[in-house]
Amino acid sequence: MRGRAIEPHLWESRLLAAVTAALLAFGVAAVYGASSIVAVQNEQPGSYFALRQLTGAVVGGLLLLFGARVDYQLWRRLAWPMLIASFVALLLPFIPGLRGLTPEINGARRWLDVGLFQIQPSEFAKFAVAAWTAMLAAKKGEQIREFKKGVLPVIVMIGPLCALILFQPNLSTAALTALVAGVILFAAGARIGHFLVLGVAAIPILWRELTQVQYRVARMTAFLSEGDLGATSWQIRQSLVGIGSGRFFGVGFGEGTQKLGYLPYAYSDFIFSTIGEEWGFLGVAFVVTLFALWMWMGFRIARSAPDQFGMLLVTGLTAMVGLTAVLHMAVTLDLVPTTGLPLPFISYGRSNLLVSLFATGVIVNVARQRFQVGRGR
What we know:
The protein is mostly helical.
């Protein structure tokens, strides 16, 4: 009987690891198929972007193993230091004289140049926010249902951090970070009325950001309009053309045409569209199924975590990866306005890849802790 009680925990963590490995392998292949021509045009080997993605996968795999082996309670103890470090890292781009450390790329200063890698502090801040919010909510207990004692402290700390991400500028990541904190508070028992009040209070801020920044106005106009707005709606139109042309089986690996200058960032921001074109409905269904399995495993592990902190941490990390994936897919299908969110484990970009793999390792560790508790009994 004891063996039967333990075996499901092993099955869940192993399936989570297998799904993650499948997404990684598919991602490297998809990046190669979508970027080889762009790499050659930039006088790089055709495998340039894929090899860089592969190096990120290797480093991220080591982080996954580290997160799986280290007791997740460590992140409760390091919640405050990680949050403070995130504040410092996000402040660096705003300090004069640090342009060598914080280069401007595509009109934004979101990256830190650390030599071998250019990392986005906002990606690592999401993990810090998840750990800190889970720590605070677990500590507050029933007080989380009180606005002053439960929700307000989170707003006071997470609000300024999201503002720093917003000023980079990066509205989508700022909103996603706030959503991750909100999901954790909701799982901890915060009142729905408090979220409604916060939502109403956030409307003026969102309205200002959407109407005062030119490229965001263009994106919203393109999303709300049914007509052809030329360059304004170019990306999303080409995304839909790519997905539609793939039909059931796709045009073939590496044979897509949207990456030939029609669809910008086909290997990162719109890689789901590239998958639809080259792999067809089968490829899209495969990716969606893998992400559904990943999220299902994450929430199953959260439901039976050894303690409240573990449950909230896994819930937040699962939402962090899952919401990013859902929003990326929604953008490529013209269901929401265009954002720059990647498809976790698949899109080119090593910051998100490293954080997603590390988060997976932490989830696996929580699953192993359940196993150890069961064995001790």
